[in-house]
Amino acid sequence: MSGTVEILKLGHAGDGVTANGLFLPYTVPGDVVRLTEDAKPRVAEIVTAGAWRKIPDCAHFGKCGGCALQHVDTQAYLAWKRDLIVTALAQRGFETIEVDPIRAVAPHTRRRAVLKARRNREGVALGFYEPESRNLVDISVCPILAPALAKALPKLRTALASLLREGDTAELHTTATDAGLDISLKWKRGPSMNTLMALAEFAQRLDLARLSWNGDIITVAREPYLRIGKHTVYLPIEPFLQPTREGEAMLQALVGEGVGAAKRIADLFAGCGTFALSLAEGRSVAAVEDNALMLAALDAAARAQGSKAVIERRDLFRRPLMASELKRFDAVVIDPPRPGAKAQAEQLAASEVPRIIYVSCSPSSFARDARILADGGYHLRRVTPVDQFLWSPHVELVAVLEREGS
Questions:
Q1: pTM of the prediction?
Q2: Which of the four, 107, 230, 259, 383, has the lowest number of CB atoms within 10 Å?
Q3: Which residue ranges make up each domain of the chain?
Q4: pLDDT digits (tens, 9 = 90+) for 164-185
């Protein structure tokens, strides 16, 4: 295929789509582009720019795989993200649901990121892979990262140069906590006294709160923690956290509004307590989570403040809370991983819980579970999109469902 084609829309992953179904990254509706003559055509030139196109915020955009949509006008981009939810709901029979305007975090707010590092002859490349590639893009700036992470990039690169050998590749799970930077390093290096000493020096040079290596804690200068309401949560290695503090606050506010006056609440897939701890004051909360370390962090934070949070370790995919167990709650908050929670949704649909607040990072799995709940007698009252994965095709939402007649 060659010649010029027009981009008609954005696909679900953010690629521009032509009339014959060709998906082209970094294009927008209205673009007229000339294609290469490769077996898999690519954009050789933008002949005419569409109205949605804008100048990207980052010099690395288009090569770095961290972002997919910086070239899209902000309002068009946000409308497209909201429409991902509208479309997913319509496909499950919710055509008349009015989806709220989307709420979005600002740039420079991402407090956690997984960076790649590789030592080569020229030094250390630190950043993200190119799209669909193992080529590492060495980044000097990043408009997504929170200041604490962005400012650490040059120091990380320098410190890694003295740690990695030529040809070494490492993965850094970085989190900006209230105690400082927490890094979990994945690096294929056999244990030795020299390695441990080098890691300790690495942590000291960067003034890390904590450094872990391949799942083991190497050094702790300050126990990493985050504040959730009045609670202090001391974090295990690589916990699940909302990617931004600002987005977390948006979700907590929406969940709080959804819960309303409910006093007996179940928080399913509770993690470290993002919702359980924010709801605990004046309420009885049962937090259910399968990860023992995150559950222990939640429990310790609740106990320290005398909050009424009861914990249960349970795999909700294999053993969802049954309808009979849900009788004691007047609201359920559920925040499952991307695949959703089909088995738990089926038990909720069979229950008499008056209100369900569903937090999701996948419009499609949410729409499936919402259909199960609606078929069981729940009415979908409100859906609010939240964008805290800037310039990516990922979008979150908070939905409120009420049992008919409750």
A1: 0.95
A2: 230
A3: 1-53, 79-104+239-403, 112-177+180-222
A4: 999 999 999 999 999 999 999 9
